[in-house]
Design goal:
Length: 330
């Protein structure tokens, strides 16, 4: 018997059956107890024990049946207490969150419980959209698979959580310069047989004390990238020598005062790696933390590191990594 009529109204025939079974079980237990009273007055202990065991077995069977029926009733009530309109609202939420497999599962459940609900028509439209999106995604995956790293978009501006990152002036040279102040700056000179890859980085954050991402260099060998080195992150400039020493506060390097702060990043890479296909990549997470050490110049810096895997594949760039720039890739 259906538990939902064609008008969408709930019917509960199982509750009448459940009530009947409760009365039946009570009657069984009552009769068994009365029987035991009579037996006890005229039977030996062994006979009484046998009768008790017999009655307990019958009672246990009835109790098991009651428990099963109560469980079934509870399940049906839980299903019916979640109506079609609420289910459809949840399906929309899952679709908007791109949880397509979960959305399809909920659509199937709605059709099963409420086959005549008006929401099923809208669910069919959602299923069509999901199918189209999945077909397009598969086609894009096949395209990327065929072209390899050449098919991955290269980005110098992107968001990582609360940070918007913009890279510029990416270059390769003998020195990595940063901490500009007045007419001075700090620089690192590359060792023999190496050069620095460096870039200017602008970070705009909604956080007043944000962590920062860390970039890395990977060499490209066939269908894999192999980790080479991570970038150092330094402040690009200071207002003057006094702020560089920490004698005064530089508001332009403080996210609590301004939304955008300028940095320089640099990584020392061997000439051999630079002569072959390689790439600048970034993991889509913020892990470098701000630090203050009064005995360092400058006292403020960003420390820590991002854990990069030894190898990356094309598939890694669909979600967890961003490709900034490739070199020598033919």
């Amino acid at each position: 018997m259906s538990i939902v009529n064609h008008h969408g109204k709930f019917e509960y025939p199982f509750l009448r059956k459940l009530a009947f079974n409760k009365m039946k079980s009570f009657f069984i237990v009552l009769m068994a107890t009365s029987g035991l009273s009579l037996v006890y007055s005229c039977s030996s202990k062994s006979e009484i024990d046998a009768k008790i065991a017999e009655v307990e077995k019958k009672y246990q069977d009835s109790l098991t049946l009651m428990r099963n029926e109560l469980k079934e009733a509870k399940t049906k009530i839980e299903v019916l207490s979640y109506p079609a309109d609420q289910r459809f609202a949840h399906i929309n939420e899952l679709f908007n969150a791109q949880e397509y497999e979960k959305a399809k599962k909920e659509i199937a459940e709605l059709k099963n419980v409420f086959p005549n609900a008006a929401e099923n028509n809208e669910c069919s439209k959602i299923l069509e959209k999901i199918t189209a999106l999945e077909v397009a995604k598969k086609a894009e995956e096949e395209r990327i698979k065929a072209l390899g790293f050449k098919a991955i978009p290269q980005k110098t501006s992107f968001k990582i959580d609360y940070n918007t990152i913009a890279l510029s002036s990416i270059g390769i040279g003998r020195t990595f310069t940063f901490d500009y102040r007045s007419d001075e700056w700090t620089y690192r000179e590359a060792d023999r047989g190496t050069k620095y890859i460096s870039a200017a980085m602008s970070v705009t954050s909604t956080n007043h004390d944000p962590d920062l991402p860390q970039f890395a260099v990977y060499k490209i060998e066939g269908g894999n990238m192999i980790y080479e080195e991570s970038f150092d992150t330094e402040f690009a400039r200071w207002e003057d020598y006094g702020t560089y020493l920490g004698n005064y506060h530089d508001s332009r390097n403080d996210f609590a005062k301004v939304s955008t702060v300028k940095f320089k990043i640099g990584a020392q890479i061997s000439d051999d790696v630079l002569s072959k296909p390689f790439a600048i990549v970034v993991k889509n997470e913020n892990r470098l933390t701000s630090s203050f050490d009064r005995y360092k110049n400058p006292p403020k810096s960003y420390i820590g590191s991002v854990s990069y895997p030894k190898t990356l594949s094309v598939e890694d760039f669909t979600k967890n990594y961003t490709l900034v720039k490739t070199y020598n890739l033919k």
